[in-house]
Structure formats: C-alpha cells, structure tokens
Design brief:
The chain is mostly helical and about 500 residues long. It has 4 domains: about 160 residues, Rossmann fold (3-Layer(aba) Sandwich), CATH 3.40.50.620; about 150 residues, HUPs (Rossmann fold, 3-Layer(aba) Sandwich); about 55 residues; about 100 residues, Arc Repressor Mutant, subunit A (Orthogonal Bundle). It is about 50% helix and about 10% strand. Strand 6 and strand 7 form a beta hairpin. The chain binds glutamic acid. The site of glutamic acid has 7 residues, from loops.
Length: about 500
Amino acid sequence: MTDHDSSAAEQAAPAIRPRVRFAPSPTGYLHVGGARTALFNWLYARKYGGQFLLRIEDTDRQRSTDESTRAIFDGLAWLGLDFDEDVVFQGSNLARHQADVETLLASGAAYRDFTPQAELERQRADAEARKVPFAFDRALADLPAEVVAQKLAAGEPHAVRFRVPEGVTEWYDAVHERIAFPNKDIEDFVILRSDRTPVYNLAVVSDDIAMRITMVMRGDDHISNTPKQILLYRALGATVPEFAHVPMIHGTDGKKLSKRHGATAVGDYQHLGLLPSTMLNFLALLGWSPGDDTEVMRMETLLEKFSLDGLQKKAAIFDPQKLDWMNGQHLSLMPLDDVMPHIYQAFERLGVASRSDLEARDEWFRGLVELLRVRARTVDDIANQSTPYFVEDVMYDADAVSKQWRDANASAEILSATRERLASLNVWDTASMEAALRTLAEELNISGGKIFQPLRVALTGLTVSIGIFDVLLYVGRDRSLARLDNAVRWLKQDIPA
Ligand code: GLU
C-alpha cells in the first residue's frame, strides 16, 4: 500500500489547497534550476489558491552565507515570486529536529550507534580489500539496552540511526508515476550526528511536517532521498505529502548545466537587461510543457496552463539563444507601460539619458521605444540603438562609410540634394518627407535606396536603424539638416584634391 494511490488525472487538481515550499541551501547564487523549481511551486500554489513558503536550509554552517541568502531573496523578488508567511530558517529549528529524533528513539524506530568513526572506516576499507560492496551491519551497531545505557552514562559520543524496516517503500510521483525502493537497499541511515546536528533527511522531514507541506516539488536528484523521508514521516506518525520530482537542467551539449555553459545565476540575467517576464516564461518551459506548442507566455497564461500533467521526466535543455529570442518576443508584445520601467533603468544604467529627462519628453520617447522595441532583443539593445536620437553629433561607422558612401563625390551630391528637399518642407512629417525624397529619386533617375541608405549613414552613422523617415522624425528637423551638412562637409574633405 502507498499513502497516495490517486491516479494521474486526480493529481492534476489537488483535493486540498496546496502548501508547497522552496527550500534552497544558501551555498551559492540562486541557480536557474532552483529558480525554476521555485516557479513551479509558486505556480502550483497560486493556481490552486494555496500557499508558497520559503525555507532557507542553512544547516551547513560552513557553506551557508548571508550573501547567498540575499541572492535568493533578490532573485525571487526580481521574478515576482512572492512567498507567504515568514521565511523559515532551518538552522533555528535545531531543538525540534533533536526532539523528533528523541521521539524516534523512544518508539524504537531509531537507535544510538556508538561505533567510532575509525571503526566504520576500517569496516569499509576491509570490504574494499575483499572487493565486496560495503554493507552496514545493524547487528554490530545496535547494542543491547544495558550496554547502551552504560555507554550513555559514560558520555560516549554516538550518532543516531534510523532502523529501516523490512519491505518496499513506494510512492506515486506526480512526474515519474510509481517509484519503488526495496528497503533492503537502504542502510540504517544516520539521522543525528555525534555532534547532535541533524542530517538533511531528518531536518527536511521535521520541517515539512511542521510547515504542513502537502506537496514536495523539487529536483529529481532528490529521488533517492525520498524513500528515507517517507520512512521518517511514517515513523513520526505524520501524513506523507505528495511528491513531484522535476528534471535536471542540461546545456545544449546534453551535460548538466554548469558555469561552462555561461551564466547560470538568475542575478546575471537580471543584469544583462533581460525582462523578468521572459525569465519566468523561459524557466517555466524547463521541464514543463503546456501540452501544445505555445511558447511565448506571460504570467496570466502560465497560471492558466500550468498543471502537474505537463511536467516532464526527461532533462530540460537550457538554450541561451532561445532565451534571447524569447526576450525579443516579450519586449515587442508586452504592453508598453509594463516595459517602460525596465527601459528607464537601462537608459540610466548605460548613461544614455536620465529618467527625468525621458519623462520630460514622454510622448516622444514612448514613440521612439515603440519603433525600437520590435527589432531589439534586450532593453540594453534599445538603449544602445537609441544613441543617434540623443547625441548632438554622430560618429560614422567605418563599414557604413565604405559601403554606403563608397563614391564620396556622388554621395556628397545626393546628400546635398536631399538636404535641400528636406529643408524646403513646410511640415516635418513622414508623409511629406517620403513624397519629397521619392520625387527626388525619380528626378535623379535613381532608386529610393540610393537616397535612403547614404542618408541613414549621415543621420545615424550606421547602416541599420528604424525606418528612415522615422529616423528623420526622431532626430528632428534641425539636427537632421545639421547632420546632413556635416556629412557633406566630411565627404568633401575626404575627397582627394
Ligand atoms: N536544500 C535542498 C536543496 O537545495 C532542498 C531539497 C528539498 O527540496 O527537499 O537541494
């Protein structure tokens, strides 16, 4: 019998409001894998009106740092993954962990093991020498009560081990379906070390019981811990939660995602000018699929489509190019009001313009962003591509010059004629500009491109930009004419005598 015999279909919507948790160890930055797991838990809680709790598993005093804890808070805040109730620091629950161990000792579900570390190591080395797998021998460790009492009275150091019962431990995993472990393959594992600190499996179970967690959703690297944890729940007389083990994340080369693959910390992406909504969308698809081929999704859609049924077994592939593409999609599809705060930040960070400057010409600026965002991948791209509309004079890119102003004389003439036509316009709007320049092209018997391309270089210094009439509009009349004058002057100086 298992604690949960429900079918896959029943698992999709929980019978009770779920209480789930994200339980990171603060020993590094918030990794994309962790953030992904946090997101799945958050979606599950929010979708079904439950609670999403945060527990910082800081029991490893040597490796846990405040900086890392801060990175977890910052990363979750950036993504908008808010948690309910107070954050739980596992390290403050030591007394309860020890009390739970006492309960297990009292019921006989656990026993004190006085075997010195050196002796255990000797047994291991011996097994190795005999080329047999080391098998922990309960008969050697589990001593008669009076011997235990004597050693305890003498204050001998000891660990506490869980007495693994006979049988099979199995559960219905929301991702992997039925998983079973024969108990004979699980040795009597330590739950309390000789320094009275709990091991991971005990601390997690004790905390998940105290936090009334109904569903444990975490990386599938924890599958092998799960039978031990289930045995602990039962021995403590607690209800076993449901489990969903989500896949690991690999790079495009199929190897486990690591620094070799580039940025793996959520904070790095924040600083690369990526939108949080993109990151959420991208993370959601690491191990989950909506069941159709929808890829670009904002939070409303993720919440609507998320279900345990869509969780996948196979490793997820982290493809940075897809992330880039997806950000471009979010950038152009999001309501402009949602994009603007990120744009202001990027403009300030990259020193293009201050927020107050931008707000002072709000309508102009929003119009420009609308034009730029459809061809940009990041908000940083938008800031960088907007320079021609903010600076007084542009610099000519060498490639642009050699490509579009190849014949300096001819280019200078076309630009002079262009300047004249533009200067004669009564209104500075794109329709008038276009009509004037197309007429000029006809008169000169050249294609429109022969006018527009050199003009683009004169106005932006570059070969690519938003539409040429929009460039004229956003650079403005006076600056456009001045730039044309400069270009003609520059080209004439460049012409050998
Ligand atoms: N601290 C563990 C980890 O970061 C949590 C495992 C769990 O969710 O139970 O892997």
